[in-house]
Amino acid sequence: MSANMKDLKRRMEGALENLAVEFQGLRTGRASTDLLTPIHVDAYGASMPLNQVASIAAPEPRMLSVTVWDNSMVKAVEKAIRESDLGLNPMTEGNVMRIPLPELNEERRTELTRVAGKYAEQARIAIRNIRRDGMDTLKRQEKDGEIGQDELHRGQDDIQKLTDEYVAKVDTSLADKEKDIMQV
Predict the structure, then answer these.
(1) Could you tell me where the beta strands, DSSP code E, fall in 30-152?
(2) How confident is the model at residue 3 (pLDDT cuts 50, 70, 90)?
């Protein structure tokens, strides 16, 4: 396996790990601080993960609590939570937000599977972008005379096989998560 293939594999593995982190946020019935992991807040002129501007706790099985460290950020955090695809409605008291988790009815479960599908599609896009980078590198090497036509085609086949393997892993992860979400 060439250094290029090792790098592509490492980057595709990263896309898969990122998907796993996002899936952790899609909890089924119980409150979990991971639920808010994918949320980013516009803070200090940048988009920051929620856990870098507030502490998150799960004091009760169906309740999350978010304590914002900087009072000037409370509105931005509340907005980010409301606008996430998680269907959460925070109640703000000073710099503390209580977020009751809605009961998982059939409609909510379907909505969560849609969000999971969106996360999976983002992972597939990331993997395809990594494939494109690998293909561009091969074409550039062939154009510069570093590799021949045969090596170019062999390399393209290897990259496509790797891409197909990782897209299949994304599909498997999605199917498992959907099954988990729909389980009553």
Answers:
(1) 40-43, 46-49, 54-60, 63-68, 91-93, 96-100
(2) low
